[in-house]
Amino acid sequence: MISNIEQIKAAADIVSIIQQHVKLKKSGPDMEGLCPFHTEKTPSFKVSPSKGIYKCFGCGKSGDAVQFLIEHNNFNYIQAIKFIAEQYNIPIEEETKTYEVPQPRLEKLQPDTIKFFEQRGISNNTLLRFGITECVEWMPKANKEIRAICFNYFKDEAIVNIKFRAKDKDFKLAKNAELIFYNLDAIKDETSCVIVEGEIDCLSLHEAGIYNAVSVPNGAGIGQQQLKYLDNCWQFFEDKERIIIFTDNDDPGKNLKEEIARRLGKDRCFVVEYPEGCKDANDILLKHGKLMLQSIIEQAKRWPIDGLTSVDDVFNTVVDYYTNGYPPGAECGIGEFDDYLRFGDGLMTIVTGSPNSGKSEFLDYITTSLARRHNWKFCVCSFENPTAIHVAKIMEKFIRKSFDFRKDINHRMGKEEFEEAIYLTDMYFSFINIAQVDISITGLLSKLTEVVKKTGVKGIVIDPWNYIEHKIPTGYTETQYISEAISLIREFAVKTSTHVFIVAHPKKLMKDPGTKQYPVATMYDIAGSAHFFNKTDNGISVHRDFTSTQVDVHIQKVRFHFHGKIGNTSFNFDTFTRQYNQI
Fold first, then answer.
1. Are 191 and 172 members of one domain?
2. Three-state SS across 465-524?
3. Residues 400-459: pLDDT tens digits?
4. Same domain membership, residue 351 and residue 253
């Protein structure tokens, strides 16, 4: 992982970089030229040297030097960073992690093991080529030491991990070793590669003469995909022009395919079509032979083009909706609230509320519930809470006890609960350092795109909206700017299959003269524009009754009926434990 990205970005002269592709001329304090992203005769493409950004007032494209290279040169984020580093002779600094290197297990394969592979169409020459060995190892399912096949994981020709496989699909990986793709060295210096779901599938492709295949180390799994192995070796895929995703033809395999493509970039990913009755590459080898495997790879289809969808592209999805119903969304597991709102991929939820009603507090309740229940990982951009304080607040929601001192010791988390809470927070939450990133809309989305790619987060929190550095272009009204900004965020959510939560404060609300209470804030009360209501997918308003501990949560917009309904539900906020309890 590159550790000096911010240094590289700071060195970029946006005018110098863009002038390599666009003829610019002076226009007041800025530069202007014909937009490279659409056809025009009158210049509407502006570059601001002082702000380090560009903006086209014709097509709406905007961003910094990195974003320009991504858009214009079809780079991904890391390629753009490396391009800038080369331009300014800045050495790339890589972060390193310490892993345990397993002791090589070099016992030769027994005849019955060789026969096991032969029955799966794998020759002894292939076993020798991949350095597959055998050993006696304690295995979890057997709960004793037994003979196991050793799939040795090499990186730069050195063993970094071992996958042990015994009878009855008894698997385990070496303890504390680096998690990488199997056969990783085979894709070095290749412009294309194939990703499969198991080591035997990788061997099957090798049998068919396809040598640039790698396998994920731990299958597809169920639920949210973490892909630690991709975090550890994403740079091996940076130079790939063609990535064929050949995961198993079942629901977990399809989910894994989607997540890998999301992380590596769908624009260079290809998919395969399975013969009827086949579920993986080894199945195809056994039933149809090597030539069929070769043909399937050769005929892999490009990932569907963004912006162009045919009925055929969504046919299986439509059939699934008809057969099984619409996707219900992820519920939080917090009582009646689930009846009103659940959360899906590629959507945006705006949270507002009257002053001091606990908008952020309730959002922490939502995010920790989604993390615990569905393994969602979150990246939080919190402007009002220092990271350490926000971590403490999230810990409270995980353990359902107060972080700080209380008169009654039972209201405060104990030492073991503290350790559990900080472990869960570290597992599921990361935080943007707002002092080290560009906090404009384009800057944040650029950073968040990088975070999704490298860590696979599923949820984004921006809290609050008004702390973003809103750079309203000359000639834009605030309403026009907000409309475009929200559209950019929703586009980001769709492209990355994340769910974006935004806390947005309302304009000044007047208390009722009689009750001295604030009215319930609506989406239309958010300062700046009615687009907060019009363009969001879901809208929540949190309202507190200051004469009691009651907090009412009003669900004011739900775009898809299968994700919930408009209405409200009430909670009691326990000030001793700082927890919400359904009334």
1. no
2. HHHCCCCCCCCCCHHHHHHHHHHHHHHHHHHHCCEEEEECCECCCCCCCCCCCCCCCCHH
3. 999 999 989 999 999 999 999 999 999 999 999 988 888 899 899 989 998 998 888 999
4. no
Tell me the C-alpha distance between 336 and 571, whole Å. Answer: 10
Q: What is the mean pLDDT of the chain?
A: 90
The contacts of residue 419 (CB under 8 Å, 6+ apart) are: none
Same domain, 83 and 204: no
> What is the per-residue pLDDT across 474-532, written as a single tens digit (0 to 9) for each?
778 888 888 889 989 999 999 899 999 999 999 888 888 888 889 999 999 997 778 89
C-alpha to C-alpha distances, 253 to 329, 348, 458, nearest whole angstrom: 20, 27, 18
| Enclosing H/E stretch for 538 | strand 538-544
* Domain span including residue 207: 181-325
Assign 292 a pLDDT band (cuts: 50, 70, 90).
very high
Report yes or no on 400 lying in a domain: yes
Q: Both tokens of residue 171?
A: 């698997």
Q: Which residue is associated with the tokens 């994920």? A: 216
Beta strands 378-382 and 429-431: pairing type? parallel
Alpha helices, DSSP H, located in 138-274:
199-207, 228-233, 251-264
E strands, 207-251, in order: 213-215, 242-246
Pair 559, 344: CB distance under 8 Å: no
Q: Are residues 199 and 173 in the same domain?
A: no
Residue range 9-26: mean pLDDT, rounded: 92
